[in-house]
Amino acid sequence: MKLESGKFFITEADSSANATVVEKDGLVLGRMQSCDIVLNHRTVSRVHAGINCIEDEYFLINLSVSNSITLNGRLLSSEEADVLADGDIIQIGTFLILVTRKGKNLELFVSTQFTGELVPKTTSDLDRKKPPVKATAEVQDVLKVFWEKRTRDKDEYGTSLRPTEKPLPGKALINWRPTNDLARPWRFGIFTWSFVIIALIAFASFKFYPQAYEPKPLSNPHTRTSFSKTEMIANQLNENSCTTCHTLSGKIEDSCLKCHQTEVFHGQNTKAHAEVGIGCTSCHFEHQGEGFEPRLAAFETCVSCHNDNNKNLYNGKSVATPHKGGFGYVAENGQWKWNGVSEETAETMPNVIKIADSGDNVQLSRNKQFHAIHLFRLKPVEGLQTDKSGSISCSSCHKSFDPLDRETPKQTCAICHSGYVDKTSGKTLVEDTKQNCVSCHVQHQYDKNRWDKFLTDSALQHREKAVELQIKRINDKQ
């Protein structure tokens, strides 16, 4: 016997959808979702019955052992097959299926919630036109054909009935691999106690040996237990604590700003750096050893970032070696090549900035700003000429005024803006022959101690008062 492709029209009474058309050699009926006709009821087996098309005939096969199936009221025993004819009624559990034969097509109308009893009909009730059936042995062969077909093509690997993957062909069939379907799972308590033990070991290590969680020890400024008033740039001591900087919520920069916020200092960065994502840890490193100074490391960071070898873009702009490796004299050919002081700097010296009239043109305004910053505000510096009161004046940089000397000022920049020795540690951070970037480009403008080495007492008092007002303004906003 040979399987042939049949055409099935399946209609459900409870559904308003049109009939489902299936073209294949057979259907499977049952409770499993993978069946062609799903009959979801406890009286239906997972794979209850099958309908196969063989030699232009449709055969109904009972595949269930535990649940019953009737054809026109006649019980079909397990693994029994019978041919279907027009007008036949199949009952499976609470479902009735009306069979209609139209040519080579088979229509199945499925209705649910049947409440009648399974009562065998009499011979007269079964007397209807049935297609001629071949020998009984051939009818029983239908079941053999069905199982051969199901074994070859219908076995579904990866389902609850057959969870393993499909075996490889040929000799690989002997390479059987077991599954863990029936293996006893680990108890949940094993995972719980393992987590508790690991957590206790981690906490004990953090408590008694914190060095295990850091590449190198913290620097001295973050491990000391006291500091002088002149160093009051933080409102609390770190005392070698990890959680002061590393919190479960928030960035390290947030912890920096929260700590470095006092009456004389605020750690707010410049607007230019903040806009490109340059934060505290971009310049001030940690865990570099006890003798490392995070504050002083920023001097090296300026040079390592602002040079011609750095090809990164920041907001679409590139950085290069400042002033072509020299000093940034702000005028060329009688024109000022300077954008003026930054917004943060202007807030810390309002008495100087107001000298530049808003009605002036750009060149004149920058001229006034530049000279107001330097004239009569700076202490005498060795190498520069001063006036009778000992202050920096016009003649400190210009040797003549008619005509105006514009060459000498280019040479005097190096006297104030080169080299740097830290007054606290005594370390030489910038050699005398190299320019000191932060002498002009200050990142933390709101610092009362800034430029105290160069400013006169009067100028320093004005700056400290202005910085104090700005710090108060920032704190009030937070």
3D architecture notes:
There is one protein chain. This protein has helices at residues 136-154, 188-208, 252-259, 271-275, 280-283, 294-305, 343-348, 350-353, 362-374, 408-416, 457-477, and strands at 6-12, 20-24, 26-30, 37-38, 49-54, 57-62, 69-71, 74-75, 81-83, 89-92, 95-102, 105-111, 313-314, 317-318, 331-332, 335-336, 418-421, 428-435. It is α+β, with helices and mostly antiparallel strands and 478 residues long. Strands 2-1-12-11-10-7-8 form a 7-stranded mixed sheet, with no helix packed on it. It is elongated and about 130 Å long. The longest helix has 21 residues, at 188-208. Helix content is 26%, strand content 16%.
- Please provide the ordered H/E string of secondary-structure elements: EEEEEEEEEEEEHHHHHHEEEEHHHHEEH
- Largest sheet geometry: 7 strands, mixed
Low-confidence stretches: 115-127
Structural class: alpha+beta
Topology:
Blueprint: E1 6-12, E2 20-24, E3 26-30, E4 37-38, E5 49-54, E6 57-62, E7 69-71, E8 74-75, E9 81-83, E10 89-92, E11 95-102, E12 105-111, H1 136-154, H2 188-208, H3 252-259, H4 271-275, H5 280-283, H6 294-305, E13 313-314, E14 317-318, E15 331-332, E16 335-336, H7 343-348, H8 350-353, H9 362-374, H10 408-416, E17 418-421, E18 428-435, H11 457-477
Parallel strand pairs: 1-12, 3-4
Antiparallel strand pairs: 1-2, 3-5, 5-6, 6-9, 7-8, 7-10, 10-11, 11-12, 13-14, 15-16, 17-18
